[in-house]
Amino acid sequence: MTARAAPAPARGVVARILPRSAVDGPGNRAVVFLQGCDFDCLYCHNPETRALCVHCGECAPACPSGALTARPAAGPERPFGLEVAWDATRCVDCGACVAACRRDSSPKAVAMSAEEVVASLGRQRAFLSGITVSGGECGLQPAFLESLLVASRAAGLPGLVDTNGSTDYAALPALVEAAEGFMLDVKAWDEDEHRALTGASNRAVIANLRFLAAAGKLYEVRTVVVPGSFDAERTVREVSRALVDSGSAARYKLIRFRPQGVRARWRGLPVPDDDTMAALAALARAEGVREVVVV
Amino acid sequence: MSASLSVITDRSLTYQQKVAALAKVGEETVRPLSIDPETQALRDAGVVCDLFEGSAPYRPRYVVPDYERFMRRGSAFLGLEPPRDIWEATTALLVLYRHVPSITTFPVYLGDLDALLEPFVRDEAEARKAIGLFLLSIDRTLNDSFCHADIGPDATTAGRLILELSREQKNAVPNLSLKYDPDRTPDDFAILAAATALEVAKPSFANHRLFASEFEAMGLGDYAIASCYNGLAKGGGSCTLVRMNLAALSPRSKGLDDFMGRVLPDAVERQLSYMDERVRFLVDESGFFESSFLVAEGLIRKERFSAMFGLVGLAECANDLASRGSSGAGRFGHDADTDALALSIVDRIASIVGSHRVGRLEANGGRYLMHAQVGIDSDRGVSPGCRVPIGEEPELVEHIIQSAPFHRYFPSGIGDVFAFEPTAKSNPRQLLDIVRGGFTHGLRYLSAYAADADVVRITGYLVKRSEIARLNSGGQSLQDTTALGRNAVNNLGVLERRLRS
After folding, report:
1. Parallel, antiparallel or unpaired: strands B305-312 and B455-457
2. Residue A145 in contact with residue A178, Cβ under 8 Å?
3. Which among A100, B68, B320, B398 is most buried, taking Cβ atoms within 10 Å?
4. B108 and B120 in one domain?
5. Closest Cα in chain A, distance from residue B406 (Å)
6. B66/B167 same-domain check
7. Closest Cα partner for B369 from B233, B198, B497?
8. How far apart are CA A96 and CA A94, in angstroms?
9. What distance, in Å, lies between the first and last C-alpha atoms of chain A?
10. Angle at which helices B396-407 and B336-354 cross, to 10°
């Protein structure tokens, strides 16, 4: 193994920080959502975290509380000649800006250092088991992700990485070491189905499943079940076998598709019934998965 | 109809409940206490209230036997040798419970059960059966939710069995506390306790480090959690609990200055004098400490008895005074100025109570202990102790941080109750995180339950919803506390607590 250079004091693009959640890993965890994702899942529940803001300025007039201003700006990163500024103190969290955005982005994502993220948790810290870094896709900002995991761990808050698995974690040993564990989405086992569902290949995802499971770093694998969109049985069976083969203690969470937050054109995707979910859970258990959760 | 006849013909009372109620009627026929007219006026106005202790105290309100001594030495009066196995141990305890006095006729403290039983756990299957039958006997014969057992801070097989069996049996009795110390209580044991609490509303979590250090500093050493959440010296207890209804007191003042300078100190002095009189009769005249075999056998010692100065309705009092001061004053629980005002009220009470000495009681240098009382079933618009009113609760962490500064004033008990969404059961470690964070901020005691549990915590005690339903449909309930719970549900909206996710 070659020693990695110390990461630059990276600043991350942070979409949002949820100070306390009981459904993003064990115990209470602060969830740090990073902005930007390389998948385009039909059922994406927070599409406003997909793209980085290009400062087109279209959201500013939609803001009812004067929290957004578009000022003239120059430079290659400001192709529209504008810079959108967000005033958190005036924001009423109404969602009008992300509804107005045509690029699956948000003007509320901010650049932060790892230390700033940890400091922002303030008084909540004593009430947390750790943090979970999510997205967007947090693996797209590996230097920042690593520095955040290190800073958070130093503050007594071990970090879980909630990822779509597109980043090759085997090539990022320091990041993997700094993480308490990973929560990996396996959206479909078949590559073509995966591409149809997300617009991307799943080869890296499956490689990460095997790598993280064997490394003992896998806390949880998740599959969102959407009837008719992919072969859920095969996916559940293959994921289960991969977990069992590697002796992983990870739990497998089977998630029912729900339309809340999903973009309008995909909101009508079918919701699986209880029997479907129970049968998939039984399948995973029969394959030998230690813990199966249906939500 | 006479009071006795009305009890005798009441079809909603069990035989046991009638016997207890008739004893109360009998006690009320004598009035040996000397109460000055000003104090009596405050009692009549509902400001000072002894919570139905009775007119002639013939036993301390809270008796906290030294069960460890009983297990070591047995009892000559009861003709019991020290127990040698789990069956003898559980039987000996059940026998002694029958003879521990209180104002309910039922013992308010059942012992640190895990430590008491652990020496007798040799075969786990046998221990599970014995402890299971023991817990069942407690629920079916000690029919009062103020019967309180403790476990922890160390993990034991007996402690684990008590948690597992509590989860299986889903009984309201006994009330249960885990003395939690992050340095001593292993996570897996604490998480089992949290999971159990989310299923059956118990155990609650007691800040062991805080209690232990305080009782050490008071020279009392080992402590117990009894009744609702009352911290008391083991081998002692509390002669009386009298409470001040601050919600009823503040309207008697002309404003904040008048309240702090005249109305409050006067009422506190009156309540102290009433407590002194109750203690005087109990100690000097009733003969309790000269005649109880518990004293003769060293299971309780008079020098380990104090008395509890209770208060209730701080939120309503602070809101009333704040609203009469500057315009735009915010609500208790949400406004820093109103919270600071509330804290200054508690501080003022604590300083008067702390400078009062009663010569008859040696514990804590003759100073009474402060207690945040949880209310009585007939209270309306009076929040328990220092709690934020139901319906106005802040976000969970904000709520705990708001509440914590009040907790240090109340070594004999204060606590907050949080209701969780049923989904919280899938992540019990979350509750442990809340407990640890709360204790880091100085919280003394925390209770939790999930909104779909049959057993719910009313204010400090547990009641089954199914038993309330039975009472509402004209039937009887085995537990005398079910009726209290039903009234509190109606008057305090305790089933409407903010749900935490």
Report:
1. unpaired
2. no
3. B320
4. yes
5. 18
6. yes
7. B233
8. 6
9. 40
10. 20
**Domains of chain A, each with CATH number or no CATH:** 11-50+109-294 (3.20.20.70), 60-100 (no CATH)
List pLDDT tens digits, range B190-237.
Answer: 999 999 999 999 999 999 999 999 999 999 999 999 999 999 999 999
Contact residues, chain A, for B424 at CB < 8 Å: 22
Cβ proximity of A253 and A286 under 8 Å: no
Number of domains present in the structure of chain B: 2
Chain B residues touching A128 at Cβ < 8 A: 433, 437
Q: Confirm if A45 and A147 have CB atoms less than 8 A apart.
A: no
pLDDT single digits (tens) A54-106? 999 999 999 999 999 999 999 888 999 999 999 999 999 999 999 999 999 99
Relative to beta strand B223-226, strand B204-207 is unpaired
Half-sphere exposure (CA, 13 Å, Cβ side) for B435? 30
| Token pair of B389 as six digits | 């009113």
Taking an 8 Å cut-off on Cβ atoms, the answer to whether A126 and B440 are in contact is yes
Q: B101 is in which domain, residue-wise? A: 33-501
- CA-nearest of A283, A164, A149, A268 to A221 is A164
B235 shares its domain with B164? yes
Prediction ipTM score: 0.88
Of A127, A129, A293, which is closest to B397 when you measure between CB atoms? A127
Is A27's CB within 8 Å of B430's CB? yes
Chain A residues close to B397, C-beta within 8 Å: 19-20, 123-124, 127
pLDDT digits (tens, 9 = 90+) for B274-319: 999 999 999 999 999 999 999 999 999 999 999 999 999 999 999 9
